[in-house]
Structure formats: C-alpha cells, structure tokens
Amino acid sequence: MNVELILATRMLKRSFPIYTLVPVLFLIKSTESMITSLVSGLIVASGFYLGAFLMSFAANISLNFYYFSALFGYVARLIYIFGFLLLFRNLYPIDEMAMSLTVPIVFLSMLFLEMAMVIKRKDTDLDWANDNSS
C-alpha cells in the first residue's frame, strides 16, 4: 500500500477549493491574472503530489532511503516548483503579482490544511504498522 500517495490524493481533494478559489479571486483583476494564478496553483499542487510519489517509491526500497527522500525531497520539490514557474514565466506573459501571491498562498494553505487533518486524525484508516507489502 502506498500510504503517501493515498495521503497526497486526499490532500489534493481536500485542498481543491484553495487552488481553484484563488484564481477566481484574481479574475477580478484580469483574465491574465486568473490564468497565471491557476497554472501557478496547479504547479504547486503537482509538486506536493510529486513529493508523495518520491517518498512512496523510497519507502518501498528502504527506511534509510525514505528518510533521505524526506530530507532532500523537499529541496527537489522546491526546485521542481520554481523550475516550472520560471518555464511558465518564459512561455506566457504572466501577471507577476498574481504568481507571487498565489504560490505562497496555495503552498502554505495546503500545508496548514494537511496539518489540521493530522491533528484531527482524519486519516486513521491508513495502517502504517501492519503494511507488509514491501
């Protein structure tokens, strides 16, 4: 069972209003702001899912590799996010204010939402201790 992938999928479903509502708010300014905000939010959300995929893959190999992935996977995820944001900036005429506000709003909102779900123990149906598939 890939617990990290299941958790990331649930996190993306829970935070769907965050990375879709923020672009709607930027629609007040302009369509370009809305598109910039939407793509930026999706890049950040995909970065979270990529991190979960990497940690799930690493957990299947060994516990030490899982710890290594948790430690350095964060840096890899940031490189992924900022790399795609820079690529998007070069390919499309963006609204820099929309991007610079959307990225931290979506990133921190997803982190705090997941932290709240952990505190509320919403994902107790996933069994880490009895998973003998690896």
What does this entry show, briefly?
With 134 residues, the protein is mainly α. Helices cover 80% and strands 0% of the residues. It has five helices and no strands.
Keywords for this structure?
about 130 residues, 5 helices, globular, single chain
- What is the CA-atom radius of gyration, in angstroms? 16 Å
Low-confidence stretches: none
Secondary-structure element order, N to C = HHHHH
Structural class: mainly alpha
Total beta-strand segments: 0
Q: Which of globular, elongated, flat, extended, rod-shaped describes the shape?
A: globular
The largest pleated sheet is described as: none
Helical residue percent band: over 70%
N-to-C CA distance: 8 Å
Integer count of domains: 1
**Number of distinct helices:** 5
Q: Residue-averaged pLDDT, rounded? A: 84
Strand content: under 5%
